[in-house]
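Hi R.,

Here's the chain you asked about this morning:
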Amino acid sequence: MEKDFSKNALLLCSLIIIFLISISTFSEFQTPFFSYKKSDILRDIRIKKVVSPAPKKAENKLLTTHKPAKLKKTLPIPKGLVEFEDFSADGQYLQPVFSKLKSLANGNQPLRIAFFGDSFTEGEIITADVREMLQEKFGGEGGGFIPLRIESAGPSPLAEVKQTKVSSYSIVANRGKYEFQGISGRYFLARNNASLSMRCNNLRPKTNNSTFARLLFRPLDEVDIRYSANNQFIDSVHFDSSKSLKMIEIDGKVNNVSFNFQNTDSVILYGVAFDCLKGVILDNLSLRSNSGLTLTALSSRQLAEFNRLRPYDLVILQYGLNAFPSTGNFSGYKKGMIHVINHLKASMPNARFILFSMSDKGENIDGEVVTHHLLADFIQTQKEMAEETGICFWNMFEAMGGEGTIARWAQAEKPLAAKDYTHIGPGAGRIIAKKFVSSFLFEQTKFQ
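And the predicted structure, written out as C-alpha cells:
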C-alpha cells in the first residue's frame, strides 16, 4: 500500500508561506556577504486605498504664498495691491528694514537701498520715482551713487557727467579685469591728468542737492587728487597705491563736484555718491544687457569693500529681459540666479533682498500682440528662486496690470511703452513705482 504524502506537502507549503510572510516584516540589511531588500509577498492582493487628486486651481501657475508670519498683523489687502511674498523661515524677513525706517527720525544713519537692474530701469525709470516717494515719506535727499557713465535715452534725471582721459569697462562689454569691477558692474581707468566732473540736474528737487558727496576710487599707483565743489577749490590730497577702496568726502550742500588726477600712472574710478546723513538713499545700479547672471563676476572682496563704505539695508533685483529664452527651459537660469542671490547675500550679510518678477512682454500671434506664452512659467521660475534662497518676491507683472498690459501701454494714444513691447517709458515707470511703494508701505504696517 502506497503512503499518502499529501499531508506532508500541505504542511511544507504552509511552512513556506509562514516563512515568507515572516521575512516580509524584516527591515532591509546588509552584510559583507549579501544584502537583503524588504519584500512583500502580499503586495498584489492588498486592498489599495484610492485617493482622488485635489482639483487644480484654474490659471494660477505660481506657488502659493509662503506661510504667514507669526508676529506680523494680518490686514485686509487693498484692491489692486500686490503683496510681497516672504519666503524666509519665520516670515519676518523685512523686519530689520522697517525697524531702521522707524528709527530714522532719531538716528544719524540712513536707510540704503541698492536697486540692481537692466535696461528696464536705465535712465532712472522706476528708480527715480521710488527714491522720490520714499524720501518724501521718510526724509533724505541726493541721487545716491552715480557711476561715471549713465546710460539713458535722454538726459539723465540725476547728473551731467564729463570726463577726460578715462576708459570705461563693464561686466557685459569691454570687461577689462574682473578683480576691478565695482558694485555697478563697471569701473573706469583714469590716466595721468585725467579729469572728472558731475553736476546734479534740477529735474527733481530731492536730487538737486545732497548733504555731502563722496568719490569712490582705488589708486593703482600714487596719485595727487585736486577737488572742488560748487565751483570752488577745496583741497589737494595725496594717496599711495592701494588694493582697498578709498573715498574722498565733501561736506556741505553739494550740487557739483570736479576732480583732477595728477602725478599718477593709473587710478580706478567707480563713481560719485550724492548722499544724506539720514533718510533714504537709493542707488540705481542698472546695467544695459545684463541678465543678472554676470553679477557672479563681482568678486566677494570688492562687494565687501563697497558694503563697508556703503552698507546696504535693502537690495532689489530686477532682471529677466535679457535672460528670457525662447525654448522654455529655465533650469540653467534658475540655478545661476540662485547662485547670484546667495553670492550677494554672503557679501552683504545685513541686507534684505526683494526679487522683482519680470514685467509683461509681448509677442505677435496672428497679427495681435499678446503676453508671451512662456512668461507665466518664467515668473514661476523666478518665484522659485526667491523661495529657495529665502528672500521676498514681488510680482511686478501682476502689479503693472497682468496680461496684455504692455500692448495696451504701447498702443495708447500717449504711449507708455515702446513698440518692442518690452521696454517702458517714464510714465509707466511712475505707475510701477507707485505700485511698489504702496506694497512696501503696506508691508510696513504689518510690523507697526
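The CA atoms of residues 120 and 423 lie 6 Å apart.

Let me know if you need anything else.
M.
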